[in-house]
Amino acid sequence: MAQYVKKDDDRDEEAEYSPFAGIEKGAVLQEARVFNDPQLDPRRCSQVITKLLYLLNQGDTFTKNEATEVFFAVTKLFQSRDFGLRRMVYLIIKELSPSSDEVIIVTSSLMKDMNSKTDVYRANAIRVLCRITDGTLLTQIERYLKQAIVDKNPVVASAALVSGIHWLKSNPEIVKRWSNEVQEAVQSRSALVQFHALGLLHQIRQNDRLAVSKLVSSLTKGTVRSPLAQCLLIRYTSQVIRESSMNGQTGDRPFYDYLEGCLRHKAEMVIFEAARAITELSGVTSRELTPAITVLQLFLSSSKPVLRFAAVRTLNKVAMTHPMAVTSCNIDMESLISDQNRSIATLAITTLLKTGNEAGVDRLMKQITNFMSDIADEFKIVVVDAIRSLCLKFPLKFRTLMNFLSNILREEGGFEYKKAIVDSIVTIIRDIPDAKESGLLHLCEFIEDCEFTYLSTQILHFLGIEGPKTSDPSKFIRYIYNRVILENATVRASAVSTLAKFGAMVDSLKPRIFVLLRRCLYDNDDEVRDRATLYLNTIGGDGSVVETDKDVKEFLFGSLDLPLANLETSLKNYEPSEEPFSVKSVSREVKSQPFSEKKAAAKKPTGLGAPPAGPTSTVDTYEKLLSAIPEFSTFGQLFKSSAPVELTEAETEYAVNVVKHIFDEHVVFQYNCTNTIPEQLLEDVTIVVDASEAEEFEELATKPLKSLPYDTPGQTFVAFEKPAGVPAVGKFANVLRFNVKEDYGVEDEYQLEEFEVVPSDYMLKVGVSNFRNAWESLGPDFERVDEYGLGPRESLKEAVSAVIGLLGMQPCEGTEVVAANSRSHTCLLSGVYIGNVKVLVRLSFGVESSKEVAMKLSVRSEDEADDATAAVESEGDGRLKSQAPLAFFKLKTLLTWSCQADYGVEDEYQLEEFEVVPSDYMLKVGVSNFRNAWESLGPDFERVDEYGLGPRESLKEAVSAVIGLLGMQPCEGTEVVAANSRSHTCLLSGVYIGNVKVLVRLSFGVESSKEVAMKLSVRSEDEAGTEVVAVNSRSHTCLLSGVYIGNVKVLVRLSFGVEIFKEVAMKLSVRSEDEADTHHHYYPK
C-alpha cells in the first residue's frame, strides 16, 4: 500500500496547474454576459462555455432563473459563424436541457442548421434535437431525419441513426416507420453507418423473433463489411441459435457455419467475437469447439496484451465445462504465467489448474509458489479457489495442495484472502476424509497468530465438530485452551463452546475438559462465564468418565432444520394472528442466496471480470403476490411453487406458462400471459380449465386479467380445492379466452397445451448436511425398499439424473455426480414432503452389460404417510409396484376475455392441458447429512421397490428423469452422474404436504442393452409420506372371460405395468377347457 501512496505523491508533485482550479459558479455566470456583447469574441465565448460545462459535469446545479438566463444568452451565439464556437453552443444546449417552452426558441435555429450545407452543423443539430425534443416536434422533422439516414455523408447518417436509437425508447411508433431507410443504410459502405444502422434495425425488430431470424439470415450471406457491424451480427446470430435450441430444435445448429467462417476474418475483433460466441453456445460439442480453441490459442502468443487477455479469459470459461478441449493450449498458457500483466497471468494459472492432469500438479504448484508473491489479494483469491477445485478433482494430491494452502495462510494478507484459504481448507477436510488430521492441525496453527476474530471463531466452531472424530482428539485441546487465555472475549466464548463439545463427544477427555471449564468461571466476560456454567451443568457436574446423554449431544451439536430467514418471516406474519405459532408452519425451502453468490456479490469488480449473477429465489415474490389477492389470502402457508411450465410453442401469437402453487388444501395455477401481437389489445383475459381428468380437484375461484397490452406480461389465476394432506394429481387442459380490441371488439380463444400436477410437486428440495446421520435419525420405522428396472440407458449418469429429476428431491453430498465409466452408483436424496415431513432416499444403481440399468430405492421419512414418496417417480412415465391414495388428473383450460371498442365481443383462446401430479405435493427440501437423516427416520415407514426404466440414452438421463418426476431435492451431489458410469446411487429429500419429511435412495444400474434398472428406497416420518413416492405406480390387473368358437370357455388375466419412462409391459395368462391350437393363434404372443 505504501508504494501506491508514494506513487500518488509523486504524481501530485508532477501535476500541472489546472485551468479550472478555484472556479466559482457566480463568477462564471457573470462572465456569461459576454454572450450579449454586440461584437462577439468566439475565443472568449468558448472559454466561458467550457467553464459552464465543467461546473455542470462536476455536479453544480443551476437554479431555474440561472439556467434560463444562460440558455437565452447562448441562443444569441447562433449568429456567429465560427465553427468551434457553434460546436460549443450545441454542447451547452444539450447539457442545459431546456424546458418545452424554451425549446421553441432554439428549434428554428437547429432546424435551419439541420438543412444547412455544412455537414458538421447538420450532424450536431440532429444530436441536439434528439436530446431536447418530444414526440410532437419529432413528427414535424421526421421527413428531414429520414433523408439524413440515407445521406451520403457518414457523419450525418450516423448522427441520425444514433438519434433514432435514443428516440426508439420514447417514440417507438414513429421510429418504426423508418425501417426502409434504415435497411438501406445497412448496405452503406461506411463502417460506422453500417454498425449504427444494424443496431437500430435489430432494436426495431427485437420483439419479433421471426423478423430477427430473417434479418440474420439475409445479412450472414456476406453483405456486412464493417468489422464493428460484423461483431454485432455475430451477437445477434448467437442469440438466434440460443433461442432455437431453447425451443427444442434438433439437428445441425442454424448459422453455425457463419460463425465458423468468421474465424477466418481479417479483423481480430471479428475473429475473437466469433470464437467467444461459439464457446458460449449451449450444449456445444468438442467438434464445434475445436476451430474456436485453435484461434484462441494463436491469440495467446500475440504481441498485443488485449488479445492475450481476451483469449485466456475465454479459455478460462471454457475450461469450466470442457477442460479436455483446452488442454492443447496448456503449453502456451504456461508461458503466460510470467506475463507482465497480472490479470493475464492469474487467468493462465487458474485455467491450468482446471485443465491440468494429476501428474503435472507438483510442477504447476512450484510455478504458482513464485507467482503468488507478485500479485494482489484479489487475484490470489481466484487462485485459491482454483486450487480448492483442483484438490477435489485429484484427491490423492491433497497433501501437496494442503501444504501450499497452509504456507500461504501464514503469509501476510487481508481478511478476504485469508477467509478464502480457510474456506478452502474446510471444504477439503469435509470432502476428503484423509485430509482431516493434517487440515485441522494447519487451522490450529493459524489461530495461534490470527488477527481476525471472525476466522478464529469459525475455525473453533469447525474444530468442535470435526476434532472429536479424529484418532487423537486430545492434541487439539492445547490450541483451543490457548484461545481462552490469549484472545478477546468473543474468541474466548467460542473456545469454551468448543471445549464443551470435546467433553461431550470424547468421554475420556471429560475430566480434563471440566478442569479447564472451571477455570473459565472466573473470566472477566459475562458471556464466557455463562457458557462455562451452562456446559458444566449440562454435561455433568462431577466430570466423571461416563457417556454423555444423547439429548445433551443434540443440544450441543444440533441445529435448526429450517432456514432462519423463513422463521423470521413466519414470526412476522404470526404477530397479527390469533392462532398459536408452530414451527411446522415454517417453509423449509431455502430463500436466501447461495454462499457463492453472496461471496461474489460482496467482492468488488476486478480486472478478471465479474461472474454472472445467479438466479434469485422467487418464493417471497410468490407469497406476497398470492397473499395480496383476497380470494387466496385464506389458503394458509404456501408450501411450494413450481418452475414455470410452458403451455405454448415459441413464436406463437400468445406466450403462456403456468406456475403451480401448492397449499395444504388448495392448488393455485398462475398463468403468465404475454401478447406478442403489436396491433392487438386483449381484454377480459381468462383461462378456462378442464379438470375432467382431475377428479379430486374442484374449481374454487378465478381471477381474470382485465387488460393485456402488447409485450406487457400479465397474470390470471385459477384456484382449485383438493383433499387436505393428500397429494392429488392429474392433468389439466387449458383454453385462453379473451376479447381482441382492434378497430372493434372480437371474442376469441386460443388452445393451450395440457400440463400435469405430479407427485414431485409436493416434494420440496431441502438438503441435509450429513445424510448418514439424518438417515439414522429417521430410523427404519417408516422405511420402504423397492427395486426397479430402468431399461437400457445411454449411461448410468443419465439414469441417475432422470431419477433425481423424477423424484424432485435434493441430491446430497455430491452423489448426483456419477464417475466416468462407472458400473454402479449410489445417490442420496433428501426433501420435505407436503406437511413438512422429512424424506430421505438412497438410490443404488447398477448397469448390466446390455446397458440395462437396475435401481434399488430405499426411502425413510418421519411418518408413515410419507412412505408414499416411492410413487413420485412413477408420475406420468414411471412404474412402481405400490399403490397410493394419490389421484392423477388432467385439466383443460380456456383463456377468455372481452374487448371493447365500438362494441364488445367476448372471445376465448384454447390453452394447453396441464396435470396436477403427486410431485406437486412434495416440497424440495435438502438435508445436510443424508445418512444421519435416513437413520433418524428409521425403517418403520420404509418402502423398497425395484423398477425397469427401459432403454435409455444414458444413466444420467434416467437419473435426471426420476428426480424430476419425484419433485424432491437431490442431496450431497448425488444428482451428478459420472460419465460412462454403469451404476449410480442418488439421494433425495423433500417435505410432503402436511410437513412430512421424506427421504429417497435411488440405486440405478445399466445393462449392456442400455436397459436401466432402478431400486427405490423411501423413508418418511409417517406412512403417508412413504406411499407418495409410490403413487406414480402404473400397474393394473384386468380379468376377462369369453366363449371361444366351439363353446370353449376362456379366462384371461392381463397384468399391466408402465415403466418409469412410459414403456408398457403386459403379462397375459390364459386358461381354457381344451388345448386347441386355435387358442394360441387367437391370442398373440
Automatic annotation (TrEMBL):
It holds the Pfam family COP-gamma_platf. Its main location: membrane. Residues 621-757 form the Coatomer gamma subunit appendage Ig-like subdomain domain. Gene3D superfamilies: Coatomer, gamma subunit, appendage domain, Leucine-rich Repeat Variant, TATA-Binding Protein. Oligomeric complex that consists of at least the alpha, beta, beta', gamma, delta, epsilon and zeta subunits. Belongs to the COPG family. This is Coatomer/calthrin adaptor appendage, C-terminal subdomain-containing protein. It comes from Artemisia annua (Sweet wormwood). The lineage of its organism: Eukaryota, Viridiplantae, Streptophyta, Embryophyta, Tracheophyta.
